[in-house]
Amino acid sequence: MTFDIVKVRADFPILTREVNGKPLVYLDNGASAQKPQVVIDAITQAYSHEYSNVHRGLHYLSNLATEKYEAVRGTIARFLGVSDERQIVMNSGTTEGINTVAYGWAMPRMEAGDEIILSVMEHHANIVPWHFLRERLGVKLVWVDVDANGDLDPDKVLGAITDRTRLIAVTHLSNVLGTVVDVKSICDGARERGVPVLVDGSQAAVHMPVNVEEIGCDFYAITGHKLYGPSGSGAIYIHRDRMAEMQPFMGGGDMIREVSKDAVTYNDPPMKFEAGTPGIVQMIGLGVALDYMMGLGMENIAAHERHLRDYARDRLDGLNWLNVQGRSVGKAAIFSFTLEGAAHAHDISTILDKKGVAVRAGQHCTGPLMEHLGLAATCRASFGLYNTTEEVDALVDALELCHKLLA
């Protein structure tokens, strides 16, 4: 199908509004994406006419909610290229997914001196849970740097493996540099050495087709609110072999078969790892969002965003006073930058906002990467499927105003 940007933008009601008297130019998609009307309608429909708790009821509304909720598991599996939907654990997002692995898989099988390999680009959600194991078990975190362009060499990751390596945890796409990591090469090499790999797919799954079975990873986490779905929704793919090795992270309803005073019998995976009343409507909304993206075509979305990336790179490179972090040739349409001189990222962001341009300013939950780059903070313009080249021009115009005011 043809990717019609005019029709796509019409699907997102918030894009018609103004901010500070200017048309909204929303370039904060790396933090959270806007929602299409079909997702908003699905949420309204669920709460207005179809809401009930799932799994435990026998009445009509409970059965309807359960049917719609459980159908999302299959949608996520199709979206990620997973042949068996029972390997999909639904949750509130990547943070919960990685913590589930840290507590349910890693903590019971690691001890002092064991090693976890991380890249310096990781988001805090893929760092802090491993620090818990460092603090509580004495696990060692092994860091692999990126090169001057922001690329991560798979051979360097694999070269960091020792006989104490128990896990590699790596992002698929940097939320700051836009770098796309060759996770398949990492997974192929790690498998030969018997080392499982967790991939943080929070950013990558938004911008490109993903097939986790082709990648060959053991865990792959996604977050719904970046995928044009509701906040509080997400999932993690867990290979069946790793599921068999896991203990439950949280205890409560749904993850059990029987409970007595003296014993508990757990449910089968994936329910074993889904305790309590879930985000029912959030997950229904996520399913609609993923259907929307697949309807547009992930290859079409990727091609559109590559065009935006190339156009933005050319325009930003024309600003000789702008420092862009991350020069990977195949990067995503994510641009982090600073201005020459003493201009703070927060000041830049505030001026851009006055022109209706929404960007993110700060460390982007990547403290080790900021330290590696020698920066306190950056501004980040992150593009999505509804952005246009005209919005790139609006960003450049606003940056020129910043330079005039702050230089």
Q: Give the beta-strand count.
A: 17
Unreliable spans: none
Tell me the name of the CATH class of the largest domain: Alpha Beta
Strand order of the largest sheet: 4-10-9-8-7-5-6
Indicate the percent of residues in helices.
40-55%
Distance between the termini: 46 Å
CATH topology of the largest domain: Aspartate Aminotransferase, domain 2
Proportion in β-strands: 15-25%
Descriptive terms for the model:
2 domains; Aspartate Aminotransferase, domain 2; 17 strands; 42% helix; 407 residues; alpha/beta
Could you walk me through the main structural features you see in this protein, from its secondary elements to its overall organization?
Catalyzes the removal of elemental sulfur and selenium atoms from L-cysteine, L-cystine, L-selenocysteine, and L-selenocystine to produce L-alanine. One of its GO terms (biological process) is cysteine metabolic process. Residues 25-395 form the Aminotransferase class V domain. There is one protein chain. The protein is an alpha/beta fold and 407 residues long. The chain folds into two domains: 5-30 and 297-406, Aspartate Aminotransferase, domain 1 (Alpha-Beta Complex); 41-295, 3-Layer(aba) Sandwich (Aspartate Aminotransferase, domain 2). It is built from 15 helices and 17 strands. The strands form five sheets. The protein has a seven-stranded mixed sheet, with helices on both faces. It has a four-stranded antiparallel sheet with strand order 13-14-17-16, covered by helices on one side. The chain has a two-stranded antiparallel ribbon with strand order 1-2. Helix 2 (37-50) runs antiparallel to helix 11, helix 3 packs across helix 11 and helix 12 runs parallel beside helix 15 (389-406). The longest helix is centred in the N-terminal third of the chain and has 21 residues, at 60-80. It is globular, with a radius of gyration of 22 Å.
